[in-house]
Amino acid sequence: HSLHCQHPNTNFCILTRPNTHTHTHSMVDCHILLYIFPGQGAINPALQFAKHLIRMGVKVTIVTTVFAHRRITAPIPEVLTIVAFSDGYDEGFKLGDHDAQHFASELRSHGSRAIAELITASINEEGQGHPITHLVYTMGQTWAAEVARGLHIPSTPLWIQPATVFHIYYYYFNGYGDMIRKHTTTDPSCPIEIPGLPLLLTSRDLPSLLVPSNSNSYSFALPAFKEQLEYLLDTETNPPKVLVNTFDAIEPVALRAIEKFNLIPIGPLVPPPSLDRKDYAEWLNSKPESSVVYVSFGSFVVLSKQQMEEIARGLLESRLPFMWVIRETEEIGDKLEELEQGGIVVPWCSQVDVLSHPSLGCFVSHCGWNSSLESLVSGVPMVGFPQFTDQTTNAKLIEDVWKTGVRVTPNEEGIVNGDEIKRCIEMVMGGEEFTRNAKKWKALASKAVKEGGSLDMNLKAFVDEL
């Protein structure tokens, strides 16, 4: 990107390329400002969302933090403008090192100013540019909607977790909170029935924010979700629209079960595999079809040294070829040399490229929603190893609804031992049902994203209404 301009009296700059692109049909009267929360779980789907809009001829401006902008490594369309502002956390927010409340407060303060200045500047440039006509913001960031509303700009949230999780939060805040709290504290194995959900949940299947025993650094997110739901119902006369990164086939009931909201499935927002040759491609090419175990816990999960050693033991004892993403900040002790005899260890990889490789047989994952969708889109069965937030519910969907994998069970100390990891890997790699179901969902995901599919049609209808 080249530096386009520095706004006077502001702390952000616009990074863009010259507009040399033309569209077959134009919707340039519609200019969407897309605010992205600075977390990888939000950045990836929001970027895909922006690209889909641009292909429809919509003008899109992304506004996010300096840290988030640095995390965007994928190719950017020429006509996409990205505005980066500093929230004081340019190296990123680190759990344990930083105060979550301070981070949320600074993000809100600096983000509000950036959004207000962008909207105001676009309106003042009337006749020269395209005024911002709508704000889309990643979930839980209601302050962004409030800023836009104060400037008479309507807004829509982009929910980047499954519709099932939205559904659970809705009922938790609307009459079922006491019942859920009671079950999670007195009898964690007691089944919890939530209206309209076709599956029974226990404490371990709920989003971790709802389980008091989890001393959770994400506790600030729960009030944000409550504020999100209340704001939408307070400010909209018709059932408020919520764009959801899912598709109809995988969540047909949860998408329609709450009459007060209009949940619009505009997923799966997953990037296509790239054609770039990576260092590890040759290794994958040398392995038989459906033989490789791929292990990755996303960009945020930090596992203890003991848990890392147990994963290493489970992988080595399975005697299957594996590819394990271990970030440079993670500890594996003296096991690295032994691991490299049985597999390959990398600090980073293009996950969609790896999952779409024919040698992949199974994905050991933290069950973040992006990873879960990427696995479904690629047709790869999973071993679910959830840690927090929505991952626990995603693992339930994988195991009991889509039936594309199994979930590990930790011991009393909360550690998943090597034997359990080996057992789950062998179960998934040897189970024809998992492979058959994974192929079924892959075909349905492919149908959703093709031209004329649900992603295309629902997004076009949303833009037409704007």
From TrEMBL:
Glycosyltransferase keyword on record: yes
Q: EC number(s) on record? A: 2.4.1.-
Q: Which family does it belong to?
A: Belongs to the UDP-glycosyltransferase family.
Transmembrane stretches in the record are none
Matching PANTHER family, A to Z? GLUCOSYL/GLUCURONOSYL TRANSFERASES, UDP-GLYCOSYLTRANSFERASE 75B1
Q: Keyword annotations for this protein?
A: Glycosyltransferase, Transferase
Q: Give the protein name, as stated in the record.
A: Glycosyltransferase
List the top taxonomic levels of the source. Answer: Eukaryota, Viridiplantae, Streptophyta, Embryophyta, Tracheophyta
KW Cytoplasm (keyword) present: no
List, in alphabetical order, the Gene Ontology terms for molecular function in this entry: quercetin 3-O-glucosyltransferase activity; quercetin 7-O-glucosyltransferase activity
Pfam families (UniProt xref): UDPGT
Protein's organism: Davidia involucrata
